[in-house]
Amino acid sequence: MNAIQFSFGNAVAHFSRTGGPAGFLWKFALSYAVLACLVQAVSVLLQWPVYEAYIQLITNGGDFDRYAEDIENVSATTSLSGLLIMPLGILLWVMFEGANQRRYMRGAGFGLRIGADEGRLLIVGLIWIALFIGMYLGFALTLAIPVVAGFVLAPDGVLLAVLLGILMMIGYMLLVFWLSARLSAAAALTVRDRQIRFFESWRVTRGKGWTIVGSWIVLGLIAIFVLILFYMLLAALGFGLLSAQVPGLMDGEVSQDDVIEAIVSPMFWLPMLAVFLAFTIAQSTLMHIFSGPAALAARTDPEWISAGMIGEFD
After folding, report:
1. Is 191 part of a structural domain of the chain?
2. Please, are residues 12 and 221 in contact by the beta-carbon 8 Å criterion?
């Protein structure tokens, strides 16, 4: 066994060097995809009036202004129903994040459970939500400064205010990325030590923040490319299948019943489900890969290694 060092290349590829029983990634991705599809199906059922309103819009020629008020009213009504799906989404995240971090920090095989790790990770998640709210407020304040400056300096200073706004936005986003990177090892440390270790991440990622940000950028660009391809495929496949089953769809010459009949037909939803399942598998795979850089920072923590804990990989 050779000790692994924290570096950019190792951070990006760390998902492939976790050790432990083989087959983790495909089990993780497939299980997440199946359960996410089930949760999404429940969400569609709870918010069906919204989807039905858009179907009616399409079947009547796509005149959005005519149906805007109806869609707004239906959306407001069904949004409360949509909130019922939130506990399922949280439960799904907690279980898979637990499996995710146990793989990185303990080399465990794939397994879903609701235990002490998941309870601690829920607290970590709530802390992240609080921090993101604070970051959002900071963004609003950062945006307000150049806007106020533009009003004060108008008309001669508008260009200066715009440039100031651009620089402040770029600077703030870099700051957010860096702060997020410095705290990104919180979940891994919490699972590693079996205690909530949120702010301990600041020590563990010292000197590693920009490397983590860089690895996120590379992985993010790959993820964006993959997800855009899937979105384009879903859109093209959906319109293609509907157009084949419902001629004159975009001309407003079909009834709402014809469109609904086409959507509930296996000829439509089976191919769409297959592509959506593949999309969710890719999404869950990327979710695991994205955790790698922060987990590597936790695994290469000098204090942990010097204490005689596992700091090596197969």
Report:
1. yes
2. no
Categorise residue 207: left if φ over 0, alpha if ψ from -120 to 50, beta otherwise.
left
Question: DSSP of 110-167, one letter per residue?
Answer: P----SHHHHHHHHHHHHHHHHHHHHHHHHHHHHHHHHHHHHHHTTTTHHHHHHHHHH
| Three-point CA angle 206, 197, 298, nearest 5° | 45
The tokens of 245 are what?
């089953």
Instruction: Report if residue 5 sits inside a domain.
Output: no
Q: Report, in angstroms and rounded to the nearest whole number, the Rg of the chain calculated over CA atoms.
A: 24
Q: What is the pLDDT of residue 26?
A: 92
Q: Is the pLDDT of residue 120 over 60?
A: yes
Specify if 194 maps to a domain: yes
Assessment of whether the complete model's pTM goes beyond 0.70: yes
DSSP-derived secondary structure letter, 253: -
**In whole angstroms, what is the distance from residue 164 CA to residue 286 CA?**
35
- Name residue 3's beta-bridge partners: 312
- Find the domain containing 126 and state its range: 23-299
Report the C-alpha gap between 73 and 50 in whole angstroms: 9
Q: Cα separation of 273 and 276, whole Å? A: 5
Q: Phi then psi for 114, rounded to 5 degrees?
A: -125, 100
> Which residues sit opposite 312 in a β-bridge?
3
Split into its structural domains, the chain has a count of 1
Give 88's contacts (C-beta < 8 A, 6+ positions apart).
Answer: 39, 42
10 occurs within a structural domain? no
Nearest residue to 91 via CA among 35, 129, 41, 48: 35
Whether pLDDT at 248 is above 70? no
